[in-house]
Write a structure and sequence with these properties.
2 domains; rod-shaped
Length: 185
């Protein structure tokens, strides 16, 4: 009888061990699955959601030679606060030839722009407080962090589609003028 009880006790013990081992295996598999999910989820490169912007006409700008003869006229979007100046023309899929952005700074000083997150090649036109063009950077490289500085202090910058300044013969010494729909412009 003692042998039978011992055998039954051993069988119960083996069943308990098997049950406990099965539970440990299930818990371990679940733990590995959860850890694996977080690791894979963090290492899979997800494309960040990019918000693309479109042109909003806020004024018109004219380019004239030093004698006042009209060279070109464009519709304008105006960047006159820090947020708008930092955003600029980033995340734009397109811009028409007769469109541009006017950056207005509170003071005249040396300015420098880059093309980070800018998908369109541009001509950058730097203008002093007398509205005279002092620097032109043509056909800037898209998605680059290359610096495009003004050669003289500037208070305004106009960005237009690459090739615009050549097509309309816009040169250093030419002038700009604009009329805007924002208050005070």
């Amino acid at each position: 009888m003692a042998k039978k009880q011992l055998k039954q006790t051993e069988q119960k013990s083996n069943k308990s061990i098997k049950k406990l081992s099965t539970q440990k295996i299930v818990i371990a598999v679940l733990a590995i699955a959860v850890i694996g999910f977080f690791i894979v989820n963090n290492f899979i490169t997800k494309e960040p959601k990019v918000e693309y912007y479109s042109f909003t006409k806020e004024g018109e700008l004219t380019f004239t030679d030093s004698l006042g003869n009209l060279k070109a006229k464009i519709d304008l979007e105006i960047a006159d606060n820090e947020y708008e100046r930092e955003l600029g023309l980033m995340n734009r899929n397109e811009m028409k030839e007769n469109q541009g952005m006017l950056f207005i700074f509170p003071t005249q000083k040396f300015q420098s722009f880059w093309m980070r997150n800018t998908l369109i090649s541009l001509d950058m036109i730097f203008i002093n407080n007398q509205k005279r063009i002092v620097t032109i950077h043509k056909s800037t490289k898209i998605l680059a962090e290359t610096s495009y500085p003004s050669s003289e202090p500037a208070m305004y910058v106009v960005e237009v589609i690459a090739g615009f300044t050549d097509k309309h013969n816009i040169q250093v010494g030419d002038k700009i003028d604009w009329m805007g729909t924002k208050i005070g412009l």
